[in-house]
Amino acid sequence: MPQIFQTSSLNSTSTPTSSLPSFITQSERTSWDQIIRSTHDVEMTITPPTTDRNENNIKTGLHSFRASDRRLDDFANRIQQQAVQAVAASLNDSEIQRLKSYGRILVTGSAGYLGATLVMLLKSKRIDLQVVGIDVVRNGPSLNYKISNNNDNISVSTVDHCIDVADSKRLSDVASSCSAVFHTAALHAPNASKHHVAEFYSTNVVGTDNILQLGLPTVFTSTTSLTVTPGVKSRIANGEIAWLDGSPSDFIGAPTDAVNLPRNKYGRTKLLAEKLCARAFEEKGLDCAVLRASRFFPEDIMDGSSLSVPNIKANELLGRRVSLVDLLDAHVHALINIKAFHGVISTLVAPWPWSWRHPEGNAKAIAAFVAKERSDAAVLYAKHGWKMPEMISCVRDFRNAVELFNWKPRFTWDSLLEVLRQEQSTNDRFDKDHEDNHSNTKFPLTYKNILEGAY
Fold first, then answer.
1. Max alpha carbon distance in the chain (Å)?
2. CA–CA distances in Å: residue 34 to residues 19, 44, 82, 209, 415
3. Which three-class secondary structure state does DSSP give residue 339?
4. What pTM was computed for the model?
5. pLDDT tens digits for range 351-381
């Protein structure tokens, strides 16, 4: 495939448009440049680029949460193990054979939470695929994962090569034996204070283009963060609800007014990466699935809340969060069904339990509607010291994923309530039945995991 994106070195004073794709018109260059350098986003310019990109510095920036907190590390690994077991058990023989038909799969960001889980799944005994995992860090003590095969835990490194996706030559070399890509590598929100926009641009935009240059079927992990604009934030602050539709990519244009741009450098660079994926499909016919992941990290919660983490996560299942097991399932089925995508973006989020955009009203009215429609929810919540949401200010649209590859999330708000209801009468037996039966596709939707927020 011809090169889509000319890579160049960026620094704090260079102009992003100097390295935009050759197919971008002059008028589009202004728009794309504004996405990167809009003046209202001061965080883009307050931090100089990192000149020392050695492994230790990068590891501190990207994996500091788990590396510095053993309990979080163990908690996250448990969620990963359960997700792998559940998805592996749910795949039928035909789906596994379709995965195996790729021979060897490249996973970028393979030391990360999602990337490592993908490697664990693909290497599990039931699937047993050859995988090439790449990341900017090697697996350290907190990044050695275990794969459960017939109750035997096997420690495995999920990183085969320490490579930056912005390095097109090394990327091309290691990918030469691969036939498909899961592209999860990214600089994201927690890295914002330590990395300049130039580094976000290099990893998220140039790196994505380098992946697309490989010409392989690609599942690209994007983010719902890019849908949060100053305009959306203003509506939420005014007590409105933001219904954020999942829609096909705009292949050509980009918003030119600051109020409709993503709010930060993470969202803006991921938006540009999405557009590269869309153009690769439109111009080159590349099989490419773009999956926007909503909140899914174990520590990824809203700041400033007095609620417990499990309570917050439960409330966010009302159209704002996705479990790791459902995210993993969606990525695998996106590759299996990649011919169906045709450039359409899918948002991965636990579904809104009612019709889309129903009911009408502001954020408080929607929360009151939820409480009325699920009249026992408040009682079920109260038993565990939880509180129902007082406002529902943001709901994301999951419908494309369902239509494209029949995605069926396990962790939804209604399924959570059903587990809490069943616990009233069956208690520990319900948990044991599910935890001992890994072939049950509802695993790990257990009472224990819900109370711990282990999803």
1. 66
2. 14, 12, 42, 19, 43
3. helix
4. 0.86
5. 999 999 999 999 999 999 999 999 999 999 9
